Amino acid sequence: MTTAENAVIVIPTYWTWPTGESHRPVTAAYDHPTPLDSDSTLPALLEDLAAQRAKGFRVLILTGLAHPDLGAAASEHVRQLLQSFQGRLDLRLCEATALRRLGRLLQLTAQESELIHLGSYSGIRNLQLLVPHILGAEVVVALDDDERVQPDYAQRALERAGQIFNADRVLGLAGPYLQRDGGLLLPESAPTGNLFRDKARSINAAMRLLTQEKGGLAPSPMALGGNMVFHRELFTSVCFDPGITRGEDIDYLINARLQGIRWWFDPDLTILHLPPRHYETPPYQRTREDVLRFIYEREKLRLHGEVKPAWLEPYPGALLGHDLAQHAAAALEMEATPELVERLGGPQSIVEAAQEHARRNAPRYPDFVKTWQDLMKRLEQDSALRQASAAVFPRL
User: Fold this and answer.
1) Residue 237 belongs to domain spanning
2) How far apart are the C-alpha atoms of 182 and 327, rounded to whole Å?
3) Contact indicator for 217, 264 with CB cutoff of 8 Å
4) Is 174 within 8 Å of 27 (Cβ atoms)?
């Protein structure tokens, strides 16, 4: 079992313009970024972490930005949120200023800068792995700021990491989200026959299979980004793909599997998921992000693995079929409004843009893997560089 002292718990936070400035431009699409003048869900989770039975872990907060111009304001705001937890938790902060300092130290190439930044899910998630590596972590535990955890969560997350299970090493571990009502399943509407509109039904089918046996682990086709555990042998080899715009959690699982690393699911490693509904993006925008995601995923699997492999059933495999583009266009048609079409594009143009994005970016993935592995090795082998980099993230 990994000791807590060798673990870093990472919590990305996502920030957008104050409510009175919501008309201002954004360069990153997040599910529910928090306006800078609104209440954050982060303090409640930090209270839970301060009450953990396991002691000695570090907590890294990442400030994701809907637009680069938010950097200074988001940093100041998050620092204020963290003040009351200084001394109660070993807190570190990765925000825009720190990232610029790190970039200068590492003399990042253009491709390395594509991998690590605060302006996309994949860029933020790679920082979620890079900074703990700099800090010497053996295990990274990924949470999200809209969650609550029980006092034994950290202990449970660490006890399996790196252990042998069924003759395989547990290098990647996922657990389920509990919904507001305490249940495991998402709300389902009546089936429509459309893969995108029926996505919740596919997710629930996978969740039922993964949680049917308590007390053990199961090989998993699915991971939820706010409840993932990464062993060092995994995160120094596998990166988040800059080509993925959403669904970076399952994409990472696929990336690991392409390198022969299996992901495991622990049905008892639960968190309570409490997303702030009033900040949610419109369904048309979320579907657009899903269209980009699954069309890209299918192309990456076609190039570097196999399309719709059996180990991805029932989800996300359900959304990787040959008729994906037709289902995508139909789902977008059902959710389109004139305002959203004007802002985000029409259904067919979104599908075509997704196909072009996949054609252009999926072939680049192996180069990103090599770049990531080289960066990890450089930090591991150059102790002076690693020490200087760690100084960028002092305890608050």
Assistant:
1) 6-280+365-387
2) 32
3) yes
4) no
